[in-house]
Design goal:
The protein is an alpha/beta fold. It contains nine helices and nine strands. It has helices at residues 16-33, 44-58, 111-125, 144-158, 173-187, 211-214, 224-235, 269-281, 306-322, and strands at 2-6, 64-71, 74-81, 97-101, 128-132, 166-171, 195-199, 258-263, 286-291.
């Protein structure tokens, strides 16, 4: 296992003090406007609309083409860096692909909410990024979301993408779904993706990690009570330590090369560190990056933070090394 403790990145011409101030403002915004709403007693519809409105403020890069694909009744966005020199439709079979599985505690999220970050992945990697609008709890419990993500992966391959040039990237709850999906892909006999990237993944819905108590108060976005409620809604009638619910406890040896990024100031820190240890012990090629002083899903703040942009550059470099090298 390759593990790196990563300090705050500072982009050229950015004053370190400014970066620190922007990070503090980001944390304060999350604590004031996101943490009180997530998992609260407010109607789930209001929570979704509120978080979606805040996410759109963060925005994304320009110069990205956006199209919609339907998989049965599930919409899926395709985001692609615009190419002014392209003449006519672009053949997907010659392009790298990323299936991006969004987070949101299994209850919040969708294409519109995460299109900005998915667009950043498209620009950074040059890949076609697919963003499925999978079914959410509490209306739909597991295995509905994993079934949807599996269907999205199969659709990406059917569009002509080579699995050796395809990766699955997931953040938070989407990280857990990504691991479950890769396991389903192998069980169903489909070719596995070339790489897996997990951003602040939620992998243990039983919340047994020590960081839940030790780091929980420092996390500006998530709190234990909200996570526990979301876990129950996602699990349905299954136990929270069931591998189908908490992939931390699943068999991991069939996973492709994996990059894990996590902040040291997030409640789910131990989900990442324990997963990396277990994956490495199972023979998986895994790289763990711990970003000092960073919070949950800090990569989504790339508009403001050089640290976030540096992390995305690392993701792009990791995928660039893996595309085309899988067996």
């Amino acid at each position: 296992m390759c593990e790196r403790a990563v300090g705050r990145w500072v982009v050229p011409h950015m004053v370190p003090g400014v970066e620190k101030l922007l990070a503090s403002l980001s944390r304060l915004s999350l604590r004031l406007f996101v943490r009180p709403v997530l998992g609260s007693r407010l109607p789930i519809g209001f929570q979704r609309r509120w978080i979606a409105a805040i996410t759109k403020v963060v925005g994304g890069p320009r110069g990205v083409e956006r199209s919609e694909i339907w998989i049965g009744e599930m919409p899926m966005l395709r985001l692609r860096k615009a190419d002014p020199a392209a003449l006519g439709p672009v053949d997907p079979s010659g392009r790298d692909a990323i299936l991006y599985v969004h987070g949101g505690a299994f209850e919040i999220g969708g294409g519109d909410m995460y299109a900005g970050f998915a667009s950043r992945l498209a620009v950074a990697t040059g890949a076609d990024v697919y963003l499925p609008d999978y079914r959410l709890a509490p209306e739909h419990a597991q295995p509905a979301p994993t079934d949807d993500v599996f269907a999205a992966y199969r659709a990406v391959l059917e569009l002509g993408h080579d699995p050796r040039r395809t990766a699955i990237v997931g953040d938070s709850a989407g990280g857990g779904l990504s691991v479950s999906t890769v396991r389903s892909v192998r069980e169903m006999g489909l070719p596995t993706p070339a790489a897996l990237v997990l951003i602040s993944p939620w992998l243990d819905l039983s919340l047994s990690g020590a960081s839940v108590g030790l780091v929980g108060r420092r996390d500006p976005m998530l709190k234990r009570e909200a996570l526990a409620a979301a876990a129950r809604n996602h699990a349905g009638g299954l136990h929270l330590d069931d591998p189908r619910i908490s992939p931390l406890f699943a068999e991991l040896r069939t996973l492709p090369p994996t990059l894990v990024q996590v902040g040291t100031d997030e409640i789910l820190l131990d989900d990442s560190t324990r997963f990396a240890d277990r994956a490495y012990a199972a023979g998986v090629e895994v790289e763990l990056q711990r970003f000092a002083g960073m919070f949950h899903d800090f990569q989504l703040f790339a508009t403001l933070l050089g640290t976030s942009r540096g992390a995305i550059e690392d993701i792009a470099a990791f995928l660039g090394r893996r595309f085309g090298t899988a067996e």
